[in-house]
Amino acid sequence: MADHTHTEGHEEHTGHGGHHVFDAATLKKTFFILVGLTILTVVLALWERGYANVFGLEFEFPALPLGVLSVPVALAIAGTKVYWVASRFMGLKFEKTKTNALVFLGSSSFLLVFFGFTWLDFAFRDTFEELSAVPTDVLEEEVLQAQEVQTEIADEFEAVPLVRETPDADLFRVPETDAAGSQELDAAVTTPAETATE
Amino acid sequence: MATLTQSPPTTPAPTEARVVPVGHEPVHNYLREPRPADDVTGLARAWAWVKSWALSVDHKRIGIMYLVAVSVFFTVAGLLALGIRTELFFVNQYSDTGAVIGGNIMGPDTYNRVFTMHGLIMVFLFIIPSIPATMGNFLLPIMVGAKDVAFPRLNLLSLYVYAAGAIIALFSITTGGVDTGWTFYTPYSKETGTAVIAMALGAFVMGFSSILTGLNFIVTIHKMRAPGMTWNRMPLFLWSIYATSIVQILATPVIGITMVLLVMERLLGVGIFDPALGGDPVLFQHFFWFYSHPAVYIMILPAFGVISELMGTFSRQRVYGYRAVALSSVAIALLGFLVWGHHMFTSGQSPVSSVVFSLITFLIGIPSGIKVFNWVWTMYKGSVWLKTPMLYALTFLFLFTIGGVTGIMVGALAVDIHLHDTYFVVAHFHYVMMGGTVMAFLGGIHYWWPKMTGKLYNETLGKISALLVFLGFNMTFFIQFVMGSQGMPRRYYDYPDMPWLEPLHQASTIGSYVLGLGLLVVLINGMLSLRKKTPKAPGNPWGGATLEWTHTTSPPDHHNFHHTPLVTHGPYDYEVLFQTSGDSQRGAPVPVVEVGGPQEMDKSVDDGTRQPDSPSDM
Amino acid sequence: MATSHSVTVDDPHAAHGGDGHGPEEHMLVGHDGQLHPSRLQHFFVSSEQQFEASKLGMWLFLATEILLFGGMFVAYGIFRVLYPELYEQASLQLDTVLGAANTLVLLLSSLTMAWAIRGAQMDNRKVLVGNLVATIVLASGFLVVKYFEYTHKFELGIWPGVNFELDEGTQRVSDLTGAVALTPAFTPAGEDAGAPEVTGETEDAEVVEADAGALGAADAPLAGEDQAAPAGDDDAVPDSPAATGEGGGEAAAAGEGVDAEAAADVTAGPAAAANLDAPGELASAGLETEHGDDHGAGHGREGEIFSNRRAGIFFAIYYVMTGIHALHIVIGIIAIGFLVFFAQRGDYSSVWYTPVENVGLYWHIVDIIWIFVFPLMYLI
Predict the structure, then answer these.
(1) Is C26 among the domain residues?
(2) Nearest-by-Cβ selection for C111 from A27, A38, A52
């Protein structure tokens, strides 16, 4: 084995074996940045609501109309905080190779893939089809409403039964079957044609 | 140029590189070392021997223990499969009241449990650990030139976690098993009274085993390659194991959380998969398949690696397109995460995502195709040696191509609407999983058998088994493509409205018995080879050029290498081997060359006067 | 294991002898007659290689943690896309101040953890042990706050999933669909209005098969029983006896009284009505004895969430996510406890402090998870 003692001077911030030693100032700076970002995100959230209840004291103020941006902004702030924790507290910034950073970023990106493709399903459920994947209870509400309407209508109109006891006298006339009767039948048969041509 | 010796390969001086006479491996092989002291006898000796294996952190011993375990589970699940096929042999006869009075060997409820357990045991207990945990564990450190994996104790823990998961799964079988199908779809998996929670926990635990193994392999490959082994000099088997491990790390936690959520659903009624509470059962399918599709790549990528090794060695030629094959493994691993929705085309997911998933499914066929072409081209103008491992490799080529192409067929959205949940899909995945992975597993076991056990299997029996397996497999599953396209649904206990399918089912069942017979012959072959009177195998019977063949004995020494090898050529440079052996006969076994200083060898077999045996002695 | 592990070739890592210097007691004479760091495993070439390998292994494990929690984040995200108003209403029930305090506590614990590693790197045992202990204290504080948050919620009847106690008159989603919730709704012992503690025990754990056909099969049960009118008006519920007989058979057969009807969210009108009444009354009744004042039903239970039929979904995700996170905090505390024990003995120094580094990485991931959980659950 090679000589195990060596007395060359180290870099300022490398310990034995060449590891980076955490620098006090960096750690403190990172912490304060993180605290600041936390305060920022809380303030933004409360501002959005337009209402805050802190230790029993209630405040109301005009709300910040972020609207649809509220989620991206919150996620951006959270992402920044994660950057600071990962790069400084976990030491990714000071590593010799990028392998660990790749592991971290790679797994995070696959998480995004998981979410993205699943979202692709749920967000486009009703494409091409009106009733696909509408939440069941919403569907049932529509059914209920339709039934309400139907009962209202039913009160006003008398429904025609589908099945009768006796055939409709107008529709099903059964004439006498004799020679004279057959002429009647012929006459009866031709009538619709005549009426049709009229 | 000289391979791994530090002096020209002429008459070796005792203190320099020396040729170990073939067939005379040192006594300190891993099967024997460590072992109880000679003065310990009787029961204490037996117990000490058990402990030396059960608490061993030697990756080779762990690999062998995994091999025994997965073989047992393969047999169990295989017998369940025979039960399924036997049940389907006849269309059942029904009485007037609808009771089954003939043509069956089990009731419908039992049938549901049988096919579920067949799937669960095969997937989680056999095929996912099959090649990585057995051959990966055994070979990876040796191929990489290291003395063990990065975390040997974690390796042992992985084995025990696997065992714990298996015990939990078996416990759930004793309480009646599960009847949901191995896919555990909600809402039925929430409702059914069977042992879903136990089985889900078993799957959760087994996932950890998979994660720990993958973790170990990635770190070993990244940090422990021998000097001179660049990424581009790694054997392709290692590239595929590396890709597999990436998938294991990224995908397996998701099945973990899925099982946890399923258990919560059953126990606490959390309701995220329950439409009655506003949840969505299709969400469960997304969660489940996000793991289970990459899982099938966990199954097939190591098989690709084995086939690369077999193709190279048994064509006596470099594997064509090394970089393409290596990078296609990684590409499959990564792309495999983007296609899970093709299991859900008929589930009610949005048409947009169905189209996207279908498109990417087509894309993922490309790297697989690249590999197949490269393997075929490897054989071209090579010296193809049709030993049993090569027979399995050729079988793989044929069967996996069929399986892969039919996978593309069901990956087409419009086609899958009709073929989903039919026997067509069943045939497809058995072609890739069994015709693919299991063939590669068998080929790899035969190939590395002399390395692992120091014995050679019987070649005649090997060829017979390969033939039986090939015939039986095709007879069983090719017919199922036909049945499926005619509408035979999968997981059906009976088919009374399609009695014209009965002859097809019967042919399939007979095929399954032939297949079972072939696998039995494999087992017998293995057992026979382990007898004392079977002659010992040479160090490199196949003439492989990777480190396990050139630098270790059969079986390897307890510590793999006495000195770290220096790698100066690629893994398929067979010409270099010819130079050292000075032998113009292709296909002949090559002497093992050791590097470095004094060897620790059993004095009784090495007195320094022995000449290298001539190849014709083999 | 009696073999040498000397390297016969040029290994850049071996060149500077690994972590060669440091106190002599960290060096052992290897079997090749040379000095080696005592912690160096035989299959590694140098301590440097071993440390880097160990760290990579830890990072890979953290990748699995990211994917594990990621699954829950996906569930969160999907339901947010489906039911955005649910999240806005529900997050009001989570105390922002406590959540922010917990976030700051965890950030501070990350600082102390990193500082402890610094202590190990600088061979300063006091700094190392002190900061490890501080981390444990802060983590425990996090858990204490969590405990209070949870218990306060349980008092208000905020349980996960099907057990969430909705306001009177709010129909459960299951009542609308005709399908049956598959685990019984949690109701504390029906008649005990004076029960001071709402326990987690469920009555009559019957599992009723979801009648998938109920959705399409019979209009009668739906039309008859699932009017959106406030429950309790039995006359507004014209049950068709057949439907009640089928669907309500289990519950009816199970016995009389609130117990049986509280057993499952069955699509029997009167049963459902009684079911919905029970939690509201009991929650307030329980609270009366709890707080000793005469606030009416709904004390503390202000907000639209209590009449949102899907509240159970949000809180299911909330409890599972924060619960598993808290479990990881507990595991972390135990791990750091081991570190304190070994650090006190003097096991760690600048020569070897790998376990401290690895546990530190784990702790930071736990913090990162919370950094995302906090705004997603509490703020937006």
Answers:
(1) no
(2) A27
**Confidence category of residue B564, pLDDT binned at 50, 70, 90:** confident
Q: What is the mean pLDDT of residues C275-292?
A: 35
Superfamily (CATH H level) for B62-529: Cytochrome c oxidase-like, subunit I domain (1.20.210.10)
Containing domain of residue C282, as a range?
Answer: 171-299
Measured distance CA(C107)–CA(A81) in Å, rounded: 10
User: Rounded distance, CA B254 to CA B290, Å?
Assistant: 7
Q: How many domains does chain C have?
A: 2
- The answer to whether A118 contacts B283, with C-beta atoms less than 8 Å apart, is yes
Four-point Cα dihedral B6, B9, B14, B19, nearest 10: 110
Chain A residues with CB under 8 Å of C222 CB are 140, 143-144, 147
Domain range holding A51?
22-90
Interface predicted TM-score of the whole assembly (ipTM), two decimals: 0.86
Question: Please, what is the end-to-end C-alpha distance for chain B in angstroms?
Answer: 27
B-chain residues near C47 (CB < 8 A): none
* pLDDT bucket at B348, cuts 50 / 70 / 90: confident
CA distance B616 to B391: 24
Comparing C56 with C29, which gets the higher pLDDT?
Answer: C56
Which of C268, C299, C330 finishes a domain? C299
Q: Is the pLDDT of residue A164 over 70?
A: no
Identify the chains in contact with B, defined as 3+ C-beta pairs within 8 A: A, C
Could you tell me how many CB contacts below 8 A there are between chain A and chain C? 202
Q: What percent of chain B has pLDDT over 90?
A: 65
Helix (H, G, I), strand (E, B) or coil at A45: helix
Question: How far apart are the CA of A53 and the nearest CA of chain C, in angstroms?
Answer: 9
Paired tokens of B52: 């030396």
Whether residue A110 contacts residue C69, with contact meaning beta carbons closer than 8 Å, is answered with no
- The residues in B 561-580 lying below 8 A from C, measured between CB atoms, are 562-564, 566
In a domain, C262, yes or no: yes
CB of B187 within 8 Å of a chain C CB? The answer is yes
Say yes or no: C160 contacts chain B, CB-CB below 8 A.
yes
User: Considering the domain boundaries, does residue A168 fall inside one?
Assistant: no
| C-chain residue closest to A135, CA distance | C82
Look-up of token digits 């399995």: B392
Whether chain A has a CB inside 8 Å of the CB on C334: the answer is no
Instruction: Closest CB to B337: pick one of A110, A124, A136.
Output: A110
Contact yes or no for B497/B94 (Cβ under 8 A): no
Query: Distance between CA atoms of B60 and B66, rounded to whole angstroms?
Result: 10
Strand ranges in chain C using DSSP code E only, listed in sequence order: 27-29, 35-37
Per domain, the residue ranges of chain B are 62-529
CATH number at C116 reads 1.20.120.80
Closest-CA distance, A111 to chain B, in angstroms, reads 9
What mean pLDDT do residues B371-394 have?
94
More confident residue, B580 or C321: C321
Please check whether residue C7 lies inside any domain of the structure: no
Backbone angles phi, psi at A79, to 5 degrees: -60, -40
C177 and C290: one domain? yes
Residue C293 sits in the same domain as residue C179: yes
Domain membership of residue A59 (yes or no) is yes
Q: What does the pLDDT average to over C340-362?
A: 92
Structure tokens at B531: 């007898």
Q: Is residue C112 part of a domain?
A: yes
Lowest-pLDDT range, A111-125, B85-99, B232-246, B369-383?
B85-99
Under an 8 A CB cutoff, do A120 and B348 touch? no
- The structural domain count of chain A equals 1
* Cβ of residue A71 closer than 8 Å to a chain C Cβ: yes
Which of the listed residues C299, C329, C359 is the one where a domain comes to its end?
C299
Residues C147 and C206 in one domain: no
Is A36 a member of any domain? yes
B535 in contact with A, Cβ within 8 Å? no
Structural domain includes residue A133: no
